[in-house]
Structure prediction request, 250 residues.
Amino acid sequence: MSSLVQPGGDVAANLAANLAAVRDRIAAEAAAVGRDPRGVTLVAVSKVQPVEKLEAALTAGHRVFGENRVQEAKAKWPALKARHPDIELHLIGPLQTNKVKEAVALFDVIQTVDRPKLARELAAECRKQGRWPRFFVEVNTGLEPQKAGIPPAEVGAFLAACKAEYGLQIAGLMCIPPAEEEPALHFALLADLAKRHFVPGLSMGMSGDFDVAVRLGATHVRVGTSVFGERKAPPAMPGSGPEPDASRGA
Ligand SMILES: *Cc1c(COP(=O)(O)O)cnc(C)c1O
Prediction:
């Protein structure tokens, strides 16, 4: 064989192995509770990861990715999407209303619909662009004041308003459980809400707990570290800090 070492070869091999391991785990957990593993979509969370790793995941055949910031996603994904039109890009981080236009243009699924004003503006923007991503409502299952999401008790009314008032069809519910609590309780609560309100999608579970989430009915797991490895801190560039939370309230 050639003595040339393929640039990025290790990265590609590692990523392919990580993806396979996570997929196997999902399949095993699904089988354990009698679920069809094809009912679980692995959203590979690529925030902060360099394009080299995204390329490696694409080479390994993976197509579903999650990003938590609109600006970062806009810098990384349009060129890759042009080459791979079957990529499905999920927004899993908070969405400010001043980024709604870019988000509707770029994402295929927006998982973080969390307030009436945002729902209304998303629907208006979709009509304008003639482009309809799928939408999930984020639920604040732990009622954490610093966290986004609709409180569980208000999910029914919010879903009804999305349909009747804002004209936004909701495909699923999403949650990020409190870091210190047993995630299973939160996953069970989200699953119960989805069932009660006839919402088919359930986005729950990350690297540390996607196995539990699959057992409790997740249709989408959002896995970053177990696929791509530890995240390095993003480069400190002007304007690249965390997006301000000012518009999160209403
Ligand atoms: C970063 C992130 C994930 C992935 O977390 P890992 O622990 O790296 O798997 C999942 N969901 C959301 C909303 C995130 O921001």
The chain has nine helices and eight strands. The two ends are 62 Å apart (CA to CA). The longest strand covers residues 41-45.
